[in-house]
Amino acid sequence: MNIADNQQNLNAQQLYVKKHHRHHHMITLLRILVLIIFLTLWECSGRLGWIDTFFFSSPSMVISFFVQMLMDGSFFAHTGITLLETLLSFLLITLISILSATLLWYSKTLSEISEPYLVVLNSLPKSALAPLFIVWLGTGINTIIVAGISVAIFGSVISLYTSFKQVDPEKLKLIYTLGGRRFDAFHKVVLPSSIPAILSSMKVNIGLALVGVIIGEFLAARRGLGYLIIYGSQVFQLNMVITSIIILCVIAMGLYQCIQWAEHLYKKKA
Amino acid sequence: MDPILECKNICFSYHNLKGETKALNNISFQVKKGEFLAIVGPSGCGKSTLLSIIAGLLEPESGEILLNENEQNKIRIGYMLQQDHLLEWRTIWKNVLLGPEISKSLSPQKEALAQKLLKDYGLYKFKDKKPGELSGGMKQRAALIRTMVMEPGLLLLDEPFSALDYQTRLMVSADIGTIIRASGITAILITHDLSEAISLADRILVLTKRPATIKNNIPVHLTLPEDTPLAARNAPEFQDLFSLLWKEISDEYSG
Fold this sequence. Notes:
Mean pLDDT of chain A: 92
Low-confidence stretches of chain A: none
Oligomer: heterodimer
Mean pLDDT of chain B: 87
Structural class of chain B: alpha/beta
Distance between the termini of chain A: 38 Å
Largest interface: A-B, 18 and 17 residues
Strand content of chain A: under 5%
Distance between the termini of chain B: 37 Å
Number of helices of chain A: 12
CATH superfamily of the largest domain in chain A: MetI-like
CATH class of the largest domain in chain A: Mainly Alpha
Strand content of chain B: 25-35%
CATH architecture of the largest domain in chain A: Orthogonal Bundle
Strand order of the largest sheet of chain B: 5-6-7-3-8-9
Radius of gyration of chain B: 19 Å
Number of strands of chain A: 0
Helix content of chain A: over 70%
Low-confidence stretches of chain B: none
Order of helices and strands of chain A: HHHHHHHHHHHH
Shape of chain A: flat
Number of helices of chain B: 9
Largest sheet of chain A: none
């Protein structure tokens, strides 16, 4: 290959990279454009009287309500409590499901006994349980955290146990040939090879924990974004409802990104 | 020389709801210290089951496994599986030390031994790499080091080259055969590759199809200018032994 060929080749490569970047930038731009068009349309249709801002609110009203929440500190109180409840539920879901899946892996009898119960509980709409939790635990943070846990826990146990079970039996045999016991097989092979599965179930769980916490707050809270949504709708304060929903969107995205980031760190290390 | 291992009337069956499948029927043989024994037989005849029983992973239905050992001098059994099964989240160094880690016998001496073995087998400069970065042959050698670090008195090889492609397989089996011979360790190799059995072993046991019994016991004496497994394939006796073994095995398929 001579230099001219090489030069041409390089240009083709540069062209490809450029094209790729251009496409990427265009997509980002269009995404932002969609948001701007939506917000403008929303604002204008309110101001032009096409929709009733009493029911539909408007971007400017949401912003002024948000600023007001920031000023009187209610933003931090409500968002903080929802965030705290979600994180606590999420941590407990992760901990309990890893422990339960471990127990099920250890004892085949236990897993056979509990299988139908797990399947039934997992397919049950968990919001149906929330009123029970209120009766048992009263209104307050306990009920809300339990509601958050209940939404994700059964699915999480099932998916982790399935992943524990799928570990190559030859790898377990290797541990036994080296004189290891079931505990060694678990902590040298099963657990490390299930970390990707644990991380991906955590991604699902963080979203579900938020769903459960909001359900709990609808029914049993005096604080939190779920409470603001239900309270706002009852007193026809739609600014409050929509602002809270938008804050929830941002929280959900942020939490998901955190786990994504942890997964990224793990992959980089591995 | 005294036998290091004696299998006495080993019987084994598998059970499921449809019924009983007899895998091993009255298997008896001895292995002398330092001997390299190959066991061949038709596919699915229970060769791997026999190895699992010798390793103590399965209990025989009847019969016994006798190891020539005493309190001061326990015989450790090393086992090499069909695939390397290196744990991909550990470095090669961490992988070869898996055995001592599990048996809680990790010591500076063990680490020194692991280092020496890695150097001897040309893997030292790869010790901080993950298994995914090594070739198939190198991984199989790392798996052998993982077994050898445990200083086994008896080495069980369960078709350890069957997952490799043909060329790698020739090289790795020659390679590992030489290593085992040089260390003077007693070894039992299970294989379905007859030329591999002839080139590596001192003696070959032929098993019948299921339920497996011992069909023949063939000593291998090759006249060789140099004693390497690859050169063994050119020995004058090689072809006759191969034909003999092939006849024994094909009888089983037709019979």
